[in-house]
Write the structure tokens for this entry.
Amino acid sequence: MAIIVYHENYASNDYLDQFLDIYYANQMQYLASDLLKNGVSGMEITKALTRAIRAAEIAGLDVRQHFLPMYTQGIDGLFNDCKMTKLGFGLLLLNADVNAPSIANYQVSLLKKSFNW
């Protein structure tokens, strides 16, 4: 006689999770560090990224589908970065410091498009 063990919760399938991570990563074409070229400081990018991820969580989005923490090689060595989807990058830009003209221009153009102005 075989014994069947019932588990209320089964561990997620590691292979499926790995496949999904690769799939999601392939959809991400933007890097948080791209804002460095637009005059946004690393500290401000970190703050904006934290707010963007929090906004995604509160909105009920699967954060894993839009944000992937990673490292990027720069002139000064490795630094923390984040790969994002277009939606993730948009959330980052909406939460970034408006003292950088490119950020302020993006936010205004987004609102103009949203309101057909």
Remarks:
- The mean pLDDT is 88.
- The first helix runs from residue 14 to 27.
